[in-house]
Records
---
Amino acid sequence: MSDSIRFRLNGHPVSLQTDGTRKLLWVLRNDLELTGTKYGCGEGVCGSCTVLVDGRAVHACQADVASVQGKEVVTIEGLARGDRLHPLQQAFQEHGALQCGYCTPGMILGAHALLRANPRPTREQIVQGMEGHLCRCGAHQRIIAAIQTASGQRGGSDE
Amino acid sequence: MSSRAKSGAVVHATGATGMPRRDFVKALGGGILVLVSLPSTGAAGAAPELQRGYPTDINAYLHIAEDGKVTLFSGKIEMGQGVMTSLTQMAAEDLGVALMSIHIVMGDTAACPFDAGTWGSMTTRFFGPAVRAAAAQARLILTDLAATRLGVARTALSVEDGVVFVTAARTRRVTFGELARGQRITHTVDERAVLRSVREFTVMGRSPQRLDGPEKVTGAAKYTADIRLPGMLYARIIRPPAHGATARRMDTSAAEAMAGVRVVDHDGLKAVLAPDPETAERALRLVRADWDVPAPAFDTESVFDHLVQAAAEGRTTESAGDIEAGRGQSARMLDVTYRHPYVAHAPMEPHVALAEVKDGKATVWASTQAPFSLRPQIARALGFRPEDVRVITPYVGGGFGGKAAGPQAVEAARLALAAGRPVQVAWTRAEEFMYDTFDPAAVVRVVSGMDANGRLTLWDYQVYAAGGRATEVFYDVPNTRVRTYGGTGGEGSSYHLFAVGPWRAPGANTNRFAAEQQIDAMARAAGIDALEFRLRNTKDPRMLSVLRAVGQASGWQPSTAPQRTGRGRGLACGIDAGSYVAEVADVTVDRATGAVKVERVVCAQEMGIVVNPDGAKMQMEGCITMGLGYALAEEVRFEGGRIHDTNFDTYRLPRFSWVPRIETVLVPNDDLAPQGGGEPAIITMGAVVANAIFDATGARMLRLPMTPERVLAEIRRG
């Protein structure tokens, strides 16, 4: 049950010999030691494990690793350029759009996919786009504001 | 990328466990160490086994190293509530250094002073003063050293950004690092050190960006499940299908036959262990067992009758006047019973622990709110001395009271001992729903009365299974009795069929749901506006100030009859953790389906001196959003010991589309020390939504959660 899986991860080529039906979440967290992608529910209903596959948001807990064969995978570790945070990361930090931080990687990558598909979403479109992401701490209002800021639709301050 | 602030730092550092304090002091090297005693934080009252290795009265350490680096050691943990930032602000303020020059170490039993646990909105209230005193004392010591060094009187000196200088000649200066060099000063103080006043604040009272933010937005932040040790194994514990079930027969041979898999049994704790979590999961599925499941004693619907019938003996917590006389004085009485279901904590990070047992010592990383309480529990389970157990707390992915209990840490330690290898126990979401310490199902009965002028005359309050938090009668009622039957901790295994425990403002959500609906109903019955009724019936100045503030901020329009238009507005207020809170909610109710949408919540909170205004608002917003869950949807459904809700598909948490416009108002009161902020704004969410639904529909919602089916049923009942 060993398959040869090749894909690009955060801009670098990766080559693995592993069972292709394994879930991407565990391959990332254990084989590739990228622990920023979180387990939350294991059933694709909380969004904590969201990563980008060819720019689209994917639940890593549901995706077979074989499904990313030849694709471009981006995790939270791959978003900043050196010390320079991605505008979404910067906006989450500035707005205090996180508390415990556990859902944050999935939130930021979910927002990334949303803005790629719709660079200037309305508030309603942000709400709809982020509906699959749970945040138990209740940072929702600030997350929406952070996404608006990152999309260039409001200034860096909170109001 | 900045990673100067780390929760439970030194993750990969020494293998030392349970380091005695004198060794710790030695290990810190030279410099200046200030230890603060502050009995009010609760260390003095802790069991001796919890404190071993530490003096009973030490609550905070602050160390200034010979290179000028400042480290604050705190037994508190960071689970999202923002205390890493606010504690650092307090230390920076009173020490006189920049915020970014302080490193904080949290929740490591080998490095930090004893702390009973992070809960009850107590960090800022009770631990904050210890931190400030340590910092202020350090500033005094440094100023004295500088006075000697510079040959001037202490009063001629000022402190700014880690530099002591002659006020009249700024170039005559010496840095903290220069002063600490060659020193080996250990100083113990009590709280009498001179703290800076609100007017002098330059760091407190402001809202710097969260210190944990950079690590959390980049994925660098380490939670317990992110820690790896060489040779570690991943456990899946063999669990029964229901609480109370026992295995008649178990066959683990197929699991054991898998490559790399071991099955261990530590005094009945049975688990499969594997080199990776997926193999462990597959092995668990191969375990065959037949279980005897006890017949269900009660379920989601019948639990309330059970709670009242099987209740512990009542305790009167408040009493005034005469209840019978109160009945006589009442022109109008209401006798209403309210119900609250079991509610899950459901933090996004499940309970996780990683344990290493080596040479008679154990090191356990755990997602916990109480590392120091875990220590003796783990020690007992292993047969170790508490000082041979070290608990390290990385970042915690939400707690809300649910991580006050840490059985997963004990499980990991036992399995690591049995296996002779490090073991990770990471609960699945289903295990989280099975072994969470739920907010208990509870019942409240209120008999209240008023005279013909709408003055309260009677308040006879009985609460079953939720305890007495937030039951204080701040309304002026001459005849009052508050009785509590059992607390949130559970009253033995037959009373609750599974574990219950503290849930964000334990019991207060249940109690305000009942009390503030009752008050609303009294106001309606009297034909008096709900805000006016409250203002008339209390003289508590802090309550009056938050009520007026929320009235003004929300644009409250007095009314005496429900609108019954499908749109409604409600009001509720309460006291929790020393803070006062009043909320107004606007809702729309779809009268065809019963679906409720909360459109806007305005919250006024008075919490004394505010250490970090934006941080306080984050907590208020979080409380309001989390409160929508228990108000509208959250209920753990069960039949006997079998839990039906096992994931977020059926157990619904608030999502983006639920979130109202939230407006928060901090009512200033700089004459009062900082009060609690993590819980107050959640306690009124059930009542404020219920009161708004009544305004929208004329239907009284006496049972939580207020699901569409229940709202529709009440509307149809008329």
---
Amino acid sequence: MTPPRIFVPRDAGALALGSDEVERAIVAAECRRGLKVEIVRTGSRGLFWLEPMIEVATAQGRIAYGPVRAEDVESLFDAGWLDGGAHALRLGPPGDIPFLKRQTRLTFSRCGVIDRLSLDDYRAQGGWLGLAWALALGPEGTVEEIVNSGLRGRGGAGFPKGIKWRTTAQAKAPQKYIVCNADEGDSGTFADRMLMEGDPFVLIEGMTIAGIAVGATKGYVYIRSEYPHAIEILGRAIEIARQERYLGPSVAGSAHAFDIEIRVGAGAYVCGEETALLDSLEGKRGQVRAKPPLPAHKGLFGRPTVVNNVISLASVPVILAEGAEAYRDLGLGRSRGTMPIQLAGNLRYRGLFEAAFGLSLGDLVDEIGGGAASGRPVRAVQVGGPLGAYFPRALFDTPFDYEAFTAKSGLIGHGGVVVFDDTVDMARQARFAMEFCSIESCGKCTPCRIGSTRGVEVIDRIVRGERRDANTTLLTELCETMKLGSLCALGGFVPYPVMSALTYFPEDFGLDPKRAAAAA
Amino acid sequence: MASWSKERAEEIVAAHRGIEGAALPMLHALQAEFGWIPQETVPMVAAALNLSRAEVHGIVTFYHDFRHEPPGRHVLKLCRAEACQSMGADSLAAAARAKLQVEWGGTSADGRVTLEPVFCLGLCACAPAAMLDGKVVGALDNARLDALLDRARQS
């Protein structure tokens, strides 16, 4: 008889909430009770308010329990959880939990479900089907399929991905590269991390397909140093894929060669910008390059290079396996397919929510997220990381879509949603945005390097009440200069959080609240 | 962490010099060995990569990860970014600085704990978050922070 299986998440978020202590308690209880169970290490399903969420395989399918603490384990065994027994922490079948049930999981279909380092599990759940399609379609057919899917870069800029691929494919060079941008620095985002820790083979498959499509034989994954677990798991997955010949001189027995190497960042936020990332990979200071030339023409070491985000690359296998049309049928306007939205900060139901574009911000925050974790009213929501705008309640009807957010002077970026309750001081948040920019500026262009420092000073003067109107005008003009004059999105987008805070929450700066009403 | 050894540093530099874009992997390996980037390594790295010492100094000082002095026995990284702010990270950080009597980047007088800021650990749905010697901690509050600091100061 095969031993009962218990699924324990080893995602960094679950570990931070004690899943390794729970695992030790399960092993101890197993010994004490003379039982034999099989522990399967998974990623996270992304329901972090329920983590550590432990699942057991029963005759009725998988049953989830959470949030489980080490001291709960004995009582769970007593309750007969191996057969799905009743317990205060019993959540039922995970797929029936409303937060998960409402999602459309394509890119994250396996994350938190399978043994993250088992190629058998990966294969059994649709793994390598995308690669088989890519080999059947050939390089040009694969590129066209991605163009037709309407997939846009999920890193932040939302550039049509197929166009990047086509441009690189058409470039002639003895060596081309695939660079995966895993420098997920935006606060409020963790989709790349979860995916690398929970389903690393899908990223390997996506990068391999990209390599075949554009004629690149070498891939780099640039992972931020703040993600040691992702670095370890992806590294082990690459080793396994190499042993099983999915990577190497003959990918899955084909005539294509492709291999992947991990490089670790060193704590510079700006290296998430694709050209700064390339300089960093080359061993330089991570400074932004002027474009043109585009990386697709002259990228890493001056060679044609595709630079794509983790989620963009990990979405490729399912697009090929299910077909471009099926993917394009999801979404709204020019935002096609699904987006892994990350609900974070002061929110009751926090975690990963993959859904087709088009949900309203209010639905995400109030209904799906359940309002503030503190129980207080939600006052402001920052969407798209530290360079994203703060949205007041008045704008909660904005649909989650690239163009709709742009129209409201915001951005969806990498899909992070950070919620603040009514204790937030928005002048302080605006000051932080400028301070962050001054700490992280690469220093190449003046508006960003100097402007951010001056921005902190001007905000301080407004808050202190020094020539408030004149300094508010000055801050507005400074933001305009940074927006128009900066070389990249760091200096160019930091005006979004600053100006949205000033526009919608003027009272926090000591200004007349009527200014907000006029703006809305 | 190992104490300074010129021979060991030379071995590390030699082991990494052949790879493409070697500077960051080389510096990471040096810091993994010594806990910081000793000034003596700068000319070694420069010579190995055919760069000027000024260029290597520029690289070392550009990246926040690379330390210019030895850290304490333990390193506590507290997240300062927005998602953690929304759950009270600022007051936790103030409490940590007061308890250790250090500013960001400083090491407590007993040499036990270095406090470093970090801008996002990707634990934004488990905020406020921290990392002690590479071990992640979420849902931090004053009691859990005290427990972490106590553990660090006792070992």
---
Amino acid sequence: MSRFVFATAEYASGDWESAPALPANLIDSVARYTSIEVAPAGVSVRLDSDELFNYPFVWLTGHLPVRFTEAERRNLKRYVERGGFMMVDDHNHDITGVFHQTATEEIERLFGKLEQVPNDHEIYRCFFTFENGPPHTNHELNGWGDDLLHPHLYAIFVGPSTGDRRRDRIGLLYSNKDYSSEWNFHPETKRTMQQDPTKFGVNLIVYALTR
Amino acid sequence: MRSRAEVRESGVSGMGGGARLGARLRVAGEWALRALVLALLVWSLALALSWGGKGAVERASTETLSEALVRWTTVAGPERVHVAFDHAPSLVERDWLAALVGAGTQVSWSGPSLLPTALSIEPRADPAGGAEVSVAAPAGAVVVLRDTVGELDSARVEAASGVRAYIPRPKVTLDAAVGGVVARAALADSLKLGRLLVLGAAGWETKFVIAALEERGWRVDAEVRVSPQTTVRQGSVTAIDTSRYSAVLVLDTTAAAHADRIARYVRSGGGLVLWSPAVDAPRLAALAPGRRRGEVMEDDGRPPSDSAPREALSIAPITGLVPDAVVLERRGEHVTLAARRLGAGRVVETGYVNTWRWRMAGGEDAPEQHRTWLAGLVSSVAYAGRVGLAVPPTNPAPLATLIDRLGPAVVAEEVEAGGGLDRAVLARWLFASLCLALLAEWASRRTRGAR
């Protein structure tokens, strides 16, 4: 059976590689807390390549303006519609920032309006439980960026709307919370932390693998 | 004046020895002819008595049969009839002929061009609906499927296995025409589908199997193992029985804890789809068509093509086949799909271990192809309650029912010979023989001067 491989999306504009330590920390957490078979190292994959479809979980982040190429748009739409899960995180944690404004514009151009994810959604309970929705980051709590505590994540919901199922599967999850900074620490640092901040990252991966 | 006796005696007595012998033989021949005439008369009498005054074999063809049936029933009342078919008769004609048999008429038929054909149509255990069609016909025959709207498809029978087809939206009845034989079948029941239960570890295969089946319309319960202490559940997994589940899908050994319940479920009629890695658990292997799993042959990363998508997938070949296993698909020498019956249920095992790549990385139609393929696996084993439907008259095996009702076909020429000599011809021959024998006897007597 295929192992889980953490993939980071490369896109033509912006700084896609802005959180280089994040994959290793999430891989470590997945291996630590779950029995999911996980590849020990992540990969980066071009958003406009066929290779993208070999990695149904992709992380996309950056600080700079995002302008997808036509090939990237085409691939991203097909990727989500086929069942891939893309996490888009605003590394600026700034709703007036260029990443947020351009990335959400690109996403909504492809999929329509981003919808607020209710804080009792399964993604907050599928492995670890987060009663109040998405956990806040140190950057939010310290008042950096837009100086806001973002209480919700936003998503593009996909999936069938017939039978028992509503159109309730998250195909693309968008965050202003800057998990890219929160989880982009040196791996050794985790040993000194009282609480592991990457637990919500485990939920993201478990959700992607089970829904 | 001499008497006639005197003339006869003087004629004989006046001859030499050779002439006398010839005359005696001639007289003996005349007696033989008289005896022949007498025998023919007796035979004629016997035939006349046995025929009871009725006529010869009445004949009809496919085109004239409907008129002939009316005549035979209302006017002629023949004792023997023969029908030469170039098309299979309609249900009415067939039953009418059978009624004639019941009324005492000897009915024979011939139809060398009629090919044995049988048609079966079964609802598919699939929320998308549709029906599986099987047609049995001789190899090389062309089968044309059609319904009340028109022609659906045609295929040549390549082997003794006949033709199989899937019809997404079947009408009430379906016809399969093979030459002059048209078999008709109807969907006799509809299916009441239960839910599916998917058991496996968290992984792309598990995720995309669940997604594909839900998109197909199945209601899916699932237990997805994330860690030894954590299982992500979907739906309410309670009793594993046929009242709730149409099929159970087991992707790996995480379902071993349920093996006994699954075994009971299958033996009571349930369906089981096993991914070959599951047979690493001995209690699951006991249910499988293959008892062992071969080494995983990883794919080379090529995107699956639309024409042969499964060629690009990783496989864990199915090995250690049990004696009652049936191989459904191979890749080269490796078995990739196999099935078996277990009690009242069925089990199918797949060696394809990462079909999710087909859906994600395949061509334009890949998601639909993947859904259809998975749904086919499930429907091949699924348990489904049946609800009977009122159906119109059908004739799924016209030639077989014709033989059942009228007996086997005869060769047309046999009707003329043997037990079937045409009475008119026989009467003419009898009359001619009698006339010839009488004429010969009379001529013999007159030419020797006797009266």
